[in-house]
Design a protein that fits this description.
- Pfam families: DOP1_C (PF24598), Dopey_N (PF04118), TPR_DOP1_M (PF24597).
- Belongs to the DOP1 family.
- Residues 337-523 form the DOP1-like middle TPR domain.
- The protein is mainly α.
- Among the domains are: 1-205; 421-664, no CATH class; 687-779; 781-910, no CATH class; 923-979 and 992-1036, no CATH class; 1037-1104 and 1118-1225; 1639-1788, no CATH class.
- It contains 78 helices and five strands.
- It has a three-stranded mixed beta sheet with strand order 3-4-5. Strands 1-2 form a two-stranded parallel sheet.
- Strand 3 (799-806) and strand 4 (809-816) form a beta hairpin.
- Helix 23 (462-486) runs parallel beside helix 26 (557-578), helix 32 (707-716) packs parallel to helix 35 (749-756) and helix 48 runs parallel beside helix 52.
- The radius of gyration is 50 Å and the shape is flat.
- The model is unreliable at 1-28, 806-812, 908-913, 980-995, 1102-1145, 1367-1422 and 1716-1732 (pLDDT under 50).
C-alpha cells in the first residue's frame, strides 16, 4: 500500500478516523480482532502461536533461540491468509529479546526473517498501526548489528518503513537515531546506503522538520553528535550572510544554536572540531540567522564556541579564530570584521559570565577563556581594551565574596594580570581613574580597583614599574592637583585617588622618577614644558581631550610630582582656612591635606635614596610654610596631619639636594609648631603624647636657641586658670615622658620653676594643678631637688640654737641672727615643702636611696661642702631632713626682726594643715579630738567629692590618715595596759577591745565615691594612696571596709580597660581620639587591687585555731600584733581548714579574690598588642600603656597565686567558663591556658591542682583529700571541661608528665562510682584527650602504661554507656527525646528544685536524685545521655582501635554500647528507623570498625527486617543508608537471602491470608530497592542477573498491583544505581510492561478508588524518571510514550497525537469529572513548568497516591512539552538530588 493511500495518522477530526491501532486488541494483545472472531482457523492459529510462545520459557542457550524462531516463523507462515498476528505484544517482546546484542548472528538473522514475514503479513497499514510494537526491538538493534545482518536491517527499513512517508512523523527522531550509527565510518561499506536512507527520510515530511530532529538528536544524545555532524557536513548547504535559512533548518533557530552549543562543549575533540567546521561553513557570525537570534541564544553559541580554547588544541583554536575574524585573508579586513560582528557579542558574553557565573562551570572559566584569547593578537588587543577592566572588576568581586574557588580564582587573576599587554592594561586603568577624578566621584571604583590590583596581583615587573607606574603616577598627581586648585568641591575625588598614589609610589623602583620614558616612535621623551597628563595621553594614545593644565619648567617626574603634591597640600590648607560650611567637605579637605603630606614624605624619602642628585623644583618654600602653619593652628586639623607636616618640614630643613630649600630654626616657624604640639599634650589626647614629646625634642635639636623652653615658659605665664591648667598638663606630659638622659631639668628649668609656683598660689585651682603635676608628671624628684637645694644652702643665711615652748612642750629650735632674702627663701621653702608633702613614699624612697654625690650639678656639691651640710655617703633625705627641714621648722626670727620677716609667718599660716598632720602622725593629739576631727574630715571629703571640689581633698586625705593612725596607736597602747603579764585577756571582762577602731559610718561610702566619681579623676592617685596606707590598720572591721573598696577598684579597672580598648579600636581616625586613661592609671589601680585582695584573704589566714591553747577564747586567738598582721598579708598561703562558723565570712573573702581575678583576667585577655601596626599616631602611647598594664597585671596575678594558689586557679577557671558561655568560639583560643602556664611552674603542677579541686568537689572523693572547696560556686564539671581543653594543648612529652596524676584521679573516680554520673563522662572526655596525646609517643610501648590505659578507658566507657539506664531510674525502655518533650508539653527540660546547699559535698553532688549544680556548664543541664551518645559516636568509637588494640576488647566494648544504648533505643519503636541522631551516629561509626560487625549486625538486620521499617521518615531512611550498605558488604549471604525471600509461587498453606502474603512480597521488594539505593553506582552489578530474574518473574507470575508497583519502584532505583548500558537486556520487558499498562487504560479506564491506581502511578513515575534521565537507550523508544519531536511545541495544522501519553490525555481528560476534585497538593505537584535552575526534575516527584486516574491528566497532557522544554533549557543537567529524594520519599512515605 502506498503512502498516499494509507490512512491519515494526523487527521484533524478524530470522529472521522477509523479505530486507532490500540483499539483492535485487548489490553495485553490477547483478544481476537472482530473480523476473525468467528473463524475457527484463526482460533487454532492463535493457539499455535501461544504454544510456540510458551516454549520460550524453556530457552537456555542460543540454539534454543533458533529453534524457537524457526517454530514461530513456521507457525506464522502456515496461516498467511490472516493479515493479523495473534498475541503480537508478546511476539514483539520475544523478537526484541532475540535481537539482544549478546546473541550470535544466527539468532539475529532468524529474528530478522520473522520480522520480514510479519511486515509482509501486516503491510504498510498494519505496520503503521503497530509501529510501536515492532520498532521497539528493531530500531536499537542496527547499531549493534554485525556486518552480515546489517544489509537485512537496512533492507527492512527501506522496503517497509520508508513507504510509510508521513506516517513516520512521530517516529522521526527515533528513526534518525537508529540510522546514524551507520555514518561512523565514511569509508564504510554501508555509509552511502545509510546516507541515502537519511536523505529519503528527510523527504518524507519536510527538510526543515528533518533538520529539527537532527538538532534534537545532537542536543539529547551525545554519542550521536559525531555522526549527526558528519551528515550535516555532507548535506547542510553553505549559507550567505543575508540568506534566510529557516526554510531549511526550521523556524526554531534557538534549537539549532543549542544543538551546536552542545556539540561545541562535547568531551570528544573530533566532535568539537566538526562543529566548528560547520560553523565556518554554514553559520557565519555575520549571518542573518545569528543576528536575528535572541540575545540569550547568541550568548549560548558564543559561550560554547569560545570554550574550545580551554582544550589548548591548535586545530580548534585556528577554527575559532577563523570564525571570529571572518573569511577574509587580509589582516586589516579581519580586524574590521571582528570589531564589527564578533567583538560586541564576545565581550558581552564573557562579561555576563564573569559577573553572573553559572553553577555548571568553574567561576574561573570565563577568565581562562579571556587569557587564552589573548594569544591571538588581532582578537586579544581589542578585547583587552573592551573587557579587561570589567574582567578585573568581576574577579575582585568574586574573590572578596569568599567563594570556595578562591585559590583557583586568585591564580587565574595573577595569570590574567601578567598576560594582558601592559600598555593596553594601564591605558584602560588610567582612563577609568581619570574619569572618576574629572567627574568628581567621591566613591569612584577606579582608584580602589587599581589599588586592589597592585596589592593582590602585582609581582615584580620591570616594564610596569619603571615605565607605566611613573607615567600614571605623574598623570594622576597632575590631574587631582589641577582640579583641587581650580574647584574646591573636587577634594572628595582627590581623596579617593591619594591612597592609590601612595601604593603606586611604593611600587616604583629607585631611579624611575629621574626621567620620562620615550614615546613610541620618537627619539626623545617629551618637551620640557609639557604637562604630565598631556604626556600620558600621548604615551597611551588616548584620544580624549586632556584637562587644562599649566606649563612645566621641568620634565623630571620627581620634580613635577613634588610640585604637584606641594600645590595640592597648599590648596587643601587654603580651603581649610577659608572655612567651608559643609562638614563633609571639610573632612575631605583635612584628609587630603594629611594624605598629601604623607605622599610628600614618601617623595622626600625617595629623594634620599637617589643620593646626591640635585633636583630643582619650582615652588615657594616660605609661602608653603606660612600657609601650612596657619592651617595647623586651626582646631579642626588632626594630630596625624601635624605629625606628618613636622616630619616633612624637618626632612626638608637644611637639605641641599632640593633647591630652593628653607631653614626651620627660626622663631617665626618654631613657635606655631611647638604651640600645636603642646596642645596635643593635654590629657584628652593621651593617645598622641609619646609622639608629640618626640617631635618637640626633635625640634629642640634643630636649633641652638632655647625655643622650646621659651615657648613653654610663655604658655605657663597665662593669667587665666583654664589656660594655665592646660599648659601645666601639657608640660607635665612632656616632663613625664622625657627620659632622664635628656636632662629635662637643665633644658626646662624656667618652666619647671614656673609650674612649681602654682603650689603656693592662693588660688585653690592653681594649687590643685600644681599638686596634680607633682603627683602624675614629676617622674623623678631629683630633677626638682637639685636646683632648689642649691639655692636653699646659701651661705648668707645665718641662725643660732634656741628653745621654744609649743602647746605646753619645750621644743628646741633656732633663731635667725640677721635678715636675708626672705622672699626668695620663702619661694624655695614652699616649693620644697610641697615637693616633700606630695612625694609620699616615692619621694622618701628616692631621697633615702640616692646619694647626694650622684647629683648632676657639681656646684651644688661644692656649696654643700662649703656650708658643712654634707658628710660621707649622705643621701638627699639626710640633707633635707637633718640639715635643712629640722632647722627651718625650728627656726624663728628675733622679735626685733619680726616686722621685717612677716612673709615667713604668712607662709607658716598657710602650712597649718601640714603642721597639724605632722603632729597627728606623731600621736600628740588626744582621742576625743581625733574622733571629732575624723568626723569633720570625712564629712568634708564627702562634700568635696559630690560637689566636684578638688582643692582640699588631698590635704584632708593626708590628715585623715594621720588621725586614724593615731587613734589605732592609742587604742593599742590602752589594750596593752589592760592585758595581764602573761598576755591572756580576761574572758569575763565586758570591756571591748580598744585596739579595734570603729569605722565611721560614712567612711566607706566616701572612699568609694572618691574613687569612682569621674570629676575626681585628677586626684585618683591620692585616694588610692590613702586607701593603701589606711585600710590595713583596720582589723576587726577589715572585711566591712575591704569588700566594697575592692569592688569599686574592680569597676574602675573595667572602665579604664573599656576606654583604652575603645581608643585602640580599628578604623581610620581622621579625627582625634579622646582617651584619658594612661599607663599610670592602670598601675596605681592594679597596685591598690593587689593590696586590697591580699588584705581580704588575711582573715582566712588569721582564723586558725591556736594549737597551743585550745581552750582560749576565740577573740584572744585572733588578736595579734601589727607586725604579725602585716606579715600575713604577704604569706605564701594560709591553711585552708576553716571552722564551720566563719564559712560565710570566708565566702565573702573569697568573693573579693574572685572579683579581683575576674578583672585581672579581663585585662590579661584584652591587652594584647597587635602585630599589624594599625594604630597609627597613637601607637607609641598605646604600646606603652598595653605593655606596662599587662606586665603589672601579670605581677599581681603571680603575687596572688603565690599567696593563694588554689583559690586563684579556680577563679581563673571560673572566668574561663564565663568567657566560653559568652563566646563559645573562644573555647580553643582563650588566653586562660596561657595564663595558667604563666602562673604555674609546669603543666604537671597545673593538672595536679585541678585534679585536687575536682577531688574535693566530687562525691566519694572529697573525703580522700584534706583540701576544701575554695570557690563554692565552681562545679567539678566546669573544672573537668577546663582540664579537657587544657590537656588538648599539651604536647606528647608534657602529656606523659601529667599522665600518672590524672590516671590516679580516674581510678579513684571509678572506685567511687557504682552507677553513671556526669563526672564519669567528663573524666572519659579528659582521659580520651590525654590518652590520644600519650599514644603518639613511644611511652605506649610500656606494658604497664598500656594496660592501665586500656583498663581505665574500658571501665570509663562501660560506665558512660549506662547513662541512659541511670536517667530512667531503672526503666529499660528509653523514651525518645521527642516523647519526653511531648510529655512535658514544652521543649525545655522540666525544672527541678535545687537541694539545700548546706554542705560542700551536697552542693557539688551530681547524682541521679539531685539536679546538677547551677555553676556547672549549661550543656550538662540538658540531656546528659544524648551528650554521652554523641561523644561516643564522635570520639570514643573512633578511638577504640587506637586505645583498645585487642579485638576482643573492642568487640566487648561495642557489645556494651549496643546492649545499653542501641537495643533500648530500638525497643518498642513504631518506626524502627526513626531513632535519635546520636544513636544513629553510634551505629554508623561502629559500622566502620571491622571487628565490631558481630555487635551491630543484629540490630541493623532486625530493623531492616521489621515490617514497620518503612513507616519511618525519608530523613531517617537516608541516615541508615551507610549502615545498610555496610551490613550487606560484610555479610555476602545477606543479599541472596533477601532475594530468596522474594517468592512468586503462591503458598501451599490454605490458611494463608493472601493480602498479607502480597504485603510481605511487596515489603521484601521494597527492602531490595532500599538496599540497592543505599549503595553507590554499580555496587551490586554482580547481582544484577539475579535481581532481573526476580523482577521479571514477579511481573510474569504475580498480578497483584501492590507487588507490581514495588517492581517499578525497584526499576527506578536500578536506573539510578546502575550504568544505563548494563540494563540493555532489560528494556524489552520494561517497555512491554509499560506499553501493556497504558494500553489497558486506553481500553478500560479504571474507576475511582480502584486498586489498579497505585500500579498506574508507579508506572507513570517510572516513565517520568526515564524522561528525566534521557538515557541513550531510552531515547530511541520514548516516541512510543511522548511526542519527542518539535511537534510537541510547534504542532502542524493537521496534527493528531500518536504517543501513548498524548492519547491518554485525550481519553482520560474527556471523562466526566468525579465528585472529588483533584487535591490541591496534587494539582500543584503536576503543574508543568520549567525548573528555575534549568535542571531536569521528575514532574510527579511530590505525588504519593491518586484517587482517580483523572489526577494524572496534567502529567499525561504536559509530559511531551515539559520533556522538550527541559531538554531545550537544561543542557542535559539532571537534578540528581531531587531524583534520589523522590525515591526515598516513595520508599518511606509512599504508604
Amino acid at each position: 500500500m502506498s503512502a498516499a493511500s494509507s490512512p491519515r495518522v494526523g487527521s484533524v477530526d478524530p470522529t472521522k478516523r477509523g479505530p486507532p491501532w490500540y483499539a483492535l486488541r485487548g489490553g495485553d494483545g490477547t483478544s481476537t480482532p472482530p473480523a476473525y472472531a468467528a473463524d475457527p482457523k484463526y482460533k487454532k492459529y492463535t493457539q499455535q502461536v501461544e504454544k510456540c510462545l510458551n516454549s520460550f520459557e524453556s530457552v537456555h542457550e542460543w540454539a534454543d533461540f533458533i529453534a524457537f524462531l524457526k517454530q514461530l516463523l513456521k507457525t506464522l507462515q502456515s496461516y498467511q491468509q490472516f493479515k493479523e498476528i495473534p498475541r503480537k505484544v508478546v511476539v514483539s517482546k520475544r523478537l526484541a529479546q532475540c535481537l539482544n546484542p549478546a546473541l550470535p548472528n544466527g539468532v539475529h538473522q532468524r529474528a530478522l526473517d520473522v520480522y520480514s514475514h510479519v511486515f509482509a503479513v501486516l503491510g504498510s497499514e498494519g505496520l503503521q498501526r503497530d509501529l510501536a510494537l515492532w520498532s521497539s526491538g528493531l530500531f536499537p538493534f542496527f547499531e549493534y548489528a554485525s556486518t552480515a545482518v546489517k544489509p537485512t536491517v537496512l533492507n527492512l527499513f527501506d522496503t517497509n518503513y520508508l513507504p510509510l512517508q508521513a506516517g513516520l512523523r512521530p517516529v522521526m527522531k527515533a528513526f534518525i537515531l537508529a540510522l546514524l550509527p551507520g555514518l561512523e565510518e565514511e569509508t564504510g561499506e554501508y555509509f552511502d546506503k545509510v546516507l541515502g536512507l537519511l536523505d529519503r527520510l528527510a523527504g518524507t515530511i519536510s527538510q526543515s522538520f528533518f533538520f529539527q530532529n537532527i538538532w534534537l538528536v545532537m542536543l539529547t544524545t551525545p554519542p550521536a553528535r559525531g555522526t549527526a555532524l558528519t551528515y550535516l557536513a555532507k548535506r547542510l548547504p553553505p549559507f550567505k550572510a543575508d540568506e534566510d535559512i529557516t526554510p531549511i533548518v526550521g523556524d526554531d533557530i534557538g534549537l539549532m544554536i543549542r544543538a551546536f552549543s552542545a556539540a561545541l562543549e562535547d568531551d570528544d575533540l573530533l566532535v568539537r572540531r566538526a562543529a566548528l567546521d560547520i560553523l565556518l561553513q554554514s553559520l557565519h557570525i555575520d549571518g542573518i540567522a545569528v543576528k536575528k537570534a535572541q540575545e540569550d541564544d547568541r550568548a549560548i553559541l558564543m559561550r560554547a564556541a569560545t570554550s574550545v580554547v580551554l582544550r589548548r588544541d591548535l586545530a580548534l583554536n585556528r577554527r575559532l579564530y577563523a570564525w571570529l575574524l571572518g573569511p577574509s585573508e587580509s589582516n586589516t579586513a579581519q580586524v574590521e570584521y571582528y570589531k564589527t560582528h564578533s567583538l560586541g557579542l564576545l565581550s558581552s558574553t564573557l562579561r555576563n559570565e564573569m559577573f553572573y557565573p553559572s553553577q555548571e562551570y568553574s567561576q574561573s572559566r570565563p577568565f581562562k577563556i579571556f587569557i587564552s584569547l589573548l594569544d591571538k593578537y588581532e582578537i586579544g588587543l581589542p578585547l583587552t581594551e573592551t573587557l579587561v577592566y570589567d574582567a578585573l572588576k568581576s574577579l575582585r568581586a568574586l574573590l572578596q565574596s569568599g567563594t570556595d574557588a578562591g585559590d583557583d580564582l586568585s591564580m587565574t587573576g595573577s595569570t590574567l594580570y601578567e598576560a594582558v599587554e601592559p600598555h593596553a592594561l594601564w591605558s584602560r586603568l588610567l582612563s577609568v581613574v581619570l574619569s572618576d577624578i574629572t567627574s568628581g566621584q567621591a566613591n569612584g571604583e577606579g582608584c580602589t580597583m587599581v589599588q586592589y590590583l597592585l596589592q593582590r596581583f602585582h609581582a615584580h615587573d620591570e616594564e610596569i614599574e619603571t615605565i607605566h607606574l611613573p607615567v600614571v603616577f605623574s598623570a594622576i598627581t597632575s590631574v587631582i592637583t589641577t582640579h583641587a586648585r581650580d574647584d574646591a568641591s573636587s577634594f572628595p575625588a582627590a581623596l579617593n585617588a591619594l591612597p592609590l598614589l601612595r601604593d603606586i609610589l611604593e611600587k616604583i623602583p629607585q631611579g624611575a622618577l629621574k626621567s620620562r620614558p620615550v614615546l613610541p616612535g620618537q627619539a626623545q621623551s617629551s618637551q620640557a614644558d609639557e604637562d604630565a597628563i598631556v604626556f600620558a595621553y600621548r604615551f597611551y594614545g588616548i584620544t580624549l581631550q586632556p584637562p587644562s593644565v599649566n606649563a612645566r619648567h621641568s620634565d623630571i617626574p620627581f620634580a613635577v610630582a613634588f610640585e604637584d603634591v606641594v600645590s595640592l597640600s597648599s590648596a587643601a590648607a587654603k580651603a581649610l582656612l577659608d572655612g567651608p560650611a559643609d562638614p563633609s567637605l571639610a573632612r575631605s579637605q583635612r584628609d587630603v591635606l594629611l594624605l598629601s603630606l604623607s605622599l610628600l614624605d614618601m617623595l622626600l624619602s625617595r629623594q634620599e635614596d637617589e643620593g646626591d642628585v640635585i633636583f630643582s623644583v619650582n615652588w615657594d618654600p616660605t609661602g608653603w610654610l606660612s600657609t601650612l602653619l596657619a592651617c595647623l593652628a586651626q582646631t579642626n586639623v588632626a594630630f596625624v596631619t601635624v605629625d606628618r607636616f613636622i616630619t616633612v618640614a624637618t626632612k626638608i630643613h637644611g637639605r641641599t639636594t632640593l633647591q630652593p630649600g628653607f631653614k626651620l630654626d627660626q622663631r617665626v616657624y618654631m613657635v606655631p609648631m611647638i604651640n600645636v604640639l603642646l596642645k596635643y599634650l593635654r590629657p584628652s589626647y593621651s593617645a598622641y603624647h609619646m609622639r608629640a614629646v618626640n617631635l618637640i625634642w626633635s625640634l629642640e635639636r634643630l636649633s641652638r636657641q632655647p625655643h622650646v623652653e621659651a615657648v613653654i615658659s610663655q604658655s605657663l605665664s597665662a593669667t587665666q586658670p583654664t589656660e594655665l591648667q592646660d599648659a601645666c598638663e601639657a608640660f607635665g606630659v612632656l616632663w613625664r615622658l622625657t627620659e632622664d638622659s635628656t636632662l629635662p631639668g637643665v633644658h626646662l628649668k624656667v618652666p619647671m620653676m614656673t609650674l612649681l609656683e602654682t603650689l603656693r598660689s592662693d588660688d585653690p585651682k592653681l594649687r590643685r594643678i600644681g599638686e596634680t603635676w607633682m603627683r602624675c608628671s614629676l617622674k623623678s624628684y631629683l630633677r626638682v631637688l637639685d636646683p632648689i637645694l642649691f639655692d636653699l644652702f646659701d651661705p648668707t643665711i645665718r641662725y643660732s640654737p634656741s628653745t621654744t615652748e609649743l602647746r605646753g612642750k619645750q621644743l628646741q629650735g633656732f633663731v635667725y641672727d640677721r635678715p636675708f632674702d626672705q622672699r626668695y627663701v620663702n619661694y624655695l621653702l614652699e616649693t620644697l615643702l610641697s615637693v616633700v608633702k606630695f612625694g609620699g613614699q616615692g619621694f622618701s624612697k628616692i631621697a633615702r636611696s640616692t646619694p647626694i654625690s650622684r647629683s648632676l650639678y657639681g656646684t651644688l656639691l661644692q656649696r654643700l661642702q662649703d656650708v658643712s651640710a654634707t658628710f660621707p655617703d649622705a643621701t638627699y633625705m639626710d640633707i633635707i631632713v637633718s640639715q635643712l627641714l629640722i632647722r627651718l621648722l625650728q627656726s624663728e626670727p628675733k622679735p626685733s626682726l619680726l616686722p621685717i620677716m612677716q612673709p615667713f609667718h604668712i607662709v607658716a599660716q598657710n602650712l597649718s594643715v601640714d603642721l597639724l598632720q605632722a603632729l597627728v602622725a606623731r600621736g600628740e593629739v588626744d582621742s576625743i579630738t581625733l574622733q571629732s576631727l575624723e568626723s569633720v574630715v570625712i564629712q568634708k571629703l564627702f562634700f568635696c567629692v559630690h560637689t566636684g571640689r578638688l582643692d582640699l581633698q588631698n590635704k584632708l586625705l593626708h590628715l585623715l590618715h594621720s588621725v586614724i593612725t593615731a587613734s589605732i596607736s592609742e587604742g593599742r597602747v590602752a589594750a596593752q595596759v589592760e592585758r595581764g603579764a602573761d598576755g591572756i585577756s580576761l574572758q569575763d571582762s565586758p570591756i571591748p577591745r580598744r585596739e579595734s577602731h570603729a569605722v565611721h559610718p560614712l567612711l566607706v561610702q566616701t572612699l568609694v565615691d572618691g574613687i569612682s566619681t569621674p570629676s575626681n579623676r585628677p586626684l585618683l592617685q591620692h585616694w588610692l594612696d590613702f586607701i593603701m596606707m589606711t585600710v590595713p590598720q583596720f582589723k576587726e572591721t577589715l572585711r566591712a571596709v575591704v569588700t566594697p573598696l575592692s569592688d569599686c577598684v574592680c569597676r574602675q579597672l573595667r572602665l579604664a580597660l573599656g576606654e583604652i580598648l575603645e581608643a585602640s579600636a580599628e578604623g581610620s581616625h581622621s579625627d582625634d581620639i579622646v582617651s584619658y586613661t594612661t599607663d599610670a592609671d592602670f598601675l596605681m589601680l592594679l597596685t591598690t587591687l593587689e593590696r586590697l585582695t591580699l588584705l581580704s584573704m588575711t582573715r582566712v589566714a588569721g582564723e586558725q585555731p591556736q594549737e597551743e591553747d585550745q581552750s582560749a577564747d576565740r577573740t584572744a586567738q585572733e588578736s595579734s600584733g601589727l607586725l604579725g598582721y602585716v606579715s600575713n598579708v604577704f604569706s605564701s598561703e594560709g591553711t585552708t581548714n576553716a571552722n564551720e562558723d566563719p564559712s560565710l565570712t570566708r565566702s565573702s573573702d573569697h568573693r573579693c579574690l574572685h572579683n579581683a581575678v575576674r578583672v585581672l583576667y579581663a585585662m590579661w585577655d584584652k591587652l594584647n598588642i597587635p602585630q599589624d601596626g594599625r594604630w597609627g599616631s597613637q601607637e607609641e602611647s598605646l604600646v606603652l600603656i598595653y605593655g606596662r598594664a599587662k606586665t603589672r597585671t601579670k605581677r599581681v596575678l603571680e603575687h596572688l597565686f603565690r599567696a593563694h594558689s588554689s583559690e586563684v586557679l579556680e577563679a581563673v577557671v571560673d572566668c574561663w567558663h564565663d568567657q566560653v558561655l559568652t563566646r563559645p568560639d573562644s573555647v580553643e583560643t582563650s588566653t586562660a591556658y596561657d595564663l595558667v602556664d604563666v602562673l604555674t611552674t609546669s603543666a604537671q603542677n597545673a593538672v595536679h591542682m585541678l585534679c585536687e579541686s575536682i577531688s574535693c568537689r566530687t562525691p566519694g572523693l572529697s573525703e580522700r583529700t584534706k583540701k576544701t572547696t575554695a570557690l563554692a560556686d565552681l562545679s567539678d564539671m566546669t573544672l573537668f571541661d577546663f582540664l579537657e581543653q587544657y590537656m588538648k594543648r599539651l604536647e606528647g612529652p608534657l602529656a606523659l608528665q601529667v599522665w600518672n596524676r590524672f590516671l590516679q584521679l580516674a581510678k579513684d573516680l571509678l572506685v567511687s562510682l557504682r552507677e553513671f554520673r556526669p563526672q564519669a563522662f567528663a573524666a572519659l572526655k579528659c582521659f580520651t584527650v590525654l590518652a590520644d596525646k600519650v599514644s603518639q609517643t613511644t611511652a605506649l610501648d610500656d606494658r604497664r602504661l598500656r594496660k592501665d590505659l586500656q583498663e581505665t578507658y574500658g571501665k570509663l566507657l562501660d560506665i558512660c554507656v549506662l547513662s541512659g539506664r541511670a536517667v530512667e531510674s531503672g526503666s529499660w525502655i528509653r523514651r525518645s527525646q521527642r516523647e519526653a518533650l511531648a510529655a512535658n508539653g514544652r521543649e525545655s527540660p522540666s525544672p527541678t528544685l535545687r537541694a539545700p546547699e548546706t554542705k560542700v559535698d551536697e552542693k557539688n553532688a551530681s547524682s541521679v536524685s539531685l539536679p546538677l549544680p547551677e555553676g556547672a556548664k549549661s550543656s550538662y543541664g540538658g540531656d546528659v545521655t544524648q551528650q554521652v551518645n554523641v561523644y561516643i559516636a564522635s570520639d570514643a568509637l573512633p578511638s577504640l582501635r587506637k586505645f583498645l588494640v585487642d579485638s576482643d576488647k573492642i568487640l566487648a566494648a561495642c557489645n556494651q554500647i549496643v546492649y545499653n544504648i542501641v537495643n533500648p533505643a530500638l525497643k518498642g519503636k513504631a518506626r524502627p528507623l526513626d531513632l535519635e541522631e546520636d544513636v544513629v551516629a553510634i551505629i554508623r561509626e561502629m559500622a566502620k570498625i571491622s571487628v565490631a560487625v558481630k555487635a551491630w549486625r543484629t540490630p541493623v538486620a532486625e530493623s531492616l527486617n521489621d515490617n514497620r521499617c518503612f513507616n519511618s521518615t525519608a530523613e531517617a531512611g537516608e541516615q541508615w543508608m551507610p549502615m545498610i550498605k555496610s551490613f550487606f558488604d560484610t555479610d555476602r549471604t545477606a543479599l541472596p537471602e533477601l532475594l530468596g525471600k522474594i517468592t512468586t509461587a503462591p503458598s501451599a498453606n490454605i490458611f494463608t491470608n493472601r493480602e498479607y502474603e502480597m504485603l510481605l512480597r511487596s515489603l521484601n521488594l521494597r527492602r531490595l530497592s532500599y538496599v540497592i539505593l543505599s549503595a553507590e553506582k554499580n555496587h551490586f552489578l554482580a547481582h544484577l542477573p539475579s535481581i532481573q530474574e526476580k523482577l521479571v518473574d514477579t511481573l510474569r507470575n504475580v498480578s497483584a498491583p501492590i507487588v507490581q508497583s514495588e517492581v517499578y519502584l525497584c526499576v527506578r532505583v536500578l536506573l539510578c544505581r546502575l550504568s544505563p548500558h548494563n540494563l540493555s537486556s532489560f528494556w524489552p520487558v520494561i517497555l512491554t510492561e509499560l506499553y501493556r499498562i497504558f494500553e489497558q487504560i486506553l481500553d478500560n479506564v479504571p474507576g475511582d478508588g480502584s486498586e489498579e491506581l497505585g500500579l498506574i502511578l508507579s508506572a507513570c513515575k517510572l516513565l517520568d524518571l526515564l524522561l528525566v534521565l534521557q538515557t541513550e537507550e531510552f531515547q530511541i523508544h520514548q516516541w512510543i510514550f511522548i511526542t519527542d519531536t518539535v511537534d510537541a511545541v510547534y504542532r502542524p495544522d493537521d496534527w493528531f497525537p500518536e504517543a501513548l501519553l498524548d492519547r491518554l490525555a485525550e481519553v482520560v481528560g474527556a471523562l466526566p469529572a468525579g465528585e472529588n476534585t483533584v487535591p490541591r497538593s496534587a494539582a500543584q505537584a503536576l503543574t508543568p513548568s520549567v525548573p528555575s535552575k534549568h535542571m531536569r526534575r521528575p514532574i510527579l516527584h511530590s505525588l504519593r497516591q491518586i484517587d482517580s486516574v483523572r489526577d494524572l491528566v496534567p502529567f499525561f497532557s504536559s509530559a511531551s512539552i515539559t520533556s522538550y522544554e527541559s531538554v531545550y533549557h537544561s543542557g542535559g543537567l539532571v537534578d540528581w538530588q531531587a531524583v534520589e529524594r523522590g525515591l526515598l520519599e516513595d520508599l518511606f512515605e509512599g504508604r
